[in-house]
Amino acid sequence: MPLLVKDYSWTQTPSSICLTIPLKRANPRKVDVFATDEYLKVHFPPFLLEVFFSEAIDDDTSVAKIGNGVAVLTLRKKEDRMWEQLTIDDADKEILKSIRERAVLKAQEKSAADSKTRAEKKQEENKYTLEKMMKIEEGQRNNIEKLKADERERATAELEAWKLQQKREAEKEEARKNRQTQEQKIQLSYTSQLSPTKNTGTAKYQRKDCDKKNLAPLPAPRSPCTIKIQFTPRVFPTALRESRVPEEEEWLKKQADARRQTSTDVSALNDLKEDERNPDWLKEKGNKLFVTGNYLAAVNAYNLAIQLNRKIPALYLNRAACHIKLKNLHKAIEDSSQALDLLLPAVADNADARMKAYVRRGTAFCELELYAEGLQDYDAALKIDPYNQTVLSDAEKIRQFIQGSMPDHLAPEKNM
User: Fold this and answer.
1) How far apart are CA 174 and CA 181, in angstroms?
2) DSSP strands (E only) in 45-148
3) What pTM was estimated for this model as a whole?
4) For the chain, what percentages of helix, strand and coil (3-state, to nearest 5) are there?
5) Pairwise CA distance, residues 74 & 84, whole Å
6) In whole angstroms, what is the distance from residue 328 CA to residue 49 CA?
7) Sheet holding 70-77: strands in order across?
8) Closest CA relative to residue 378, chosen from 369, 393, 368
9) pLDDT (tens digit, 9 = 90+) per residue, 224-283?
10) 141-162 residues labelled b (16+ CB within 10 A) or e (exposed)
11) Polar residues: which segments have biased composition (predicted)?
């Protein structure tokens, strides 16, 4: 049986009642307060306080503060006037039981109403969020369609300009041929007017009607001759490039195999046009988007090209540059490393691409403040091109920063 609390106190104003209940060293976290407009229960085991109000209160605006060994309840009255007493005196047990049951029923109804209100509010919020997402997606689709339409118009304009240029060149060629034919006709006409005559044992061509036509004689044809060419023997040593023939042949074979590889995932190609299924076309598209600063769209173009062909190093190399701009530094490191793996064996034809891969990975490391790893990649790039002044300058800045000889405001820039 719980112990009933009798030593509580209360005061009132015309608008509120202040009820003070000693907690008798009870844990504040274990104090349970339950209130309706005509009933109050405060339970902190093993103690229990029940109050059957003589008049109605507003339980929605009432507050309870628990701490320092007491519970202070501020109860708002529904009518602003002074009460003659706090509780019902000499009430029958059945009446008290009925009040208690009504309080429980009201609490259940209120809880159900609150749950329904919360559910409706959550549903409204979800509906609002969904509408916002649909509007955003619709705007993105409209932007994509606009970009596609602009690209189609630009491509159509370029095609028309190319056709016009070809037509003009054809007209020029036709005019040149007509002019050449006319000149040949004039030449033949002029030659037919010449007749061979002998004068003092020497063959000469005399002009007919020279005074009338004023035509100069043609020069005599050149006499044939033979020019002898002698080659000097090869005495210099074999060039270094010729000693890398096996590696270069392997690189060329690897490039040819990469060009022949295309994704067999038909589902990824269903929504693409014919030119959009070409990795080279997508790479050029991504390059143009990168130049305009639309790095996210460029990444999407490179992603689709990589799905079509995963063996082209330039795709990973260009996507790494986009990730650096977007501050996706770990992805930039992964793409640069993948490009370096594909750029093997190391030959002169892929030296420039390997240097770019090392510099971009080193830049990503420096952005992550991993300067030692970044310096290693810059040194690897300098082994490929030791005279690149930009890479030399950036590598020296990183080295000084690591050694602590460079002030923070002169530290290597993040966009190296």
Assistant:
1) 10
2) 47-52, 57-67, 70-77
3) 0.42
4) 60, 15, 25
5) 18
6) 62
7) 9-12, 16-22, 70-77, 57-67
8) 393
9) 878 878 776 644 444 544 556 788 888 888 888 777 776 545 445 566 677 678 899 999
10) eeeeeeeeeeeeeeeeeeeeee
11) 183-203
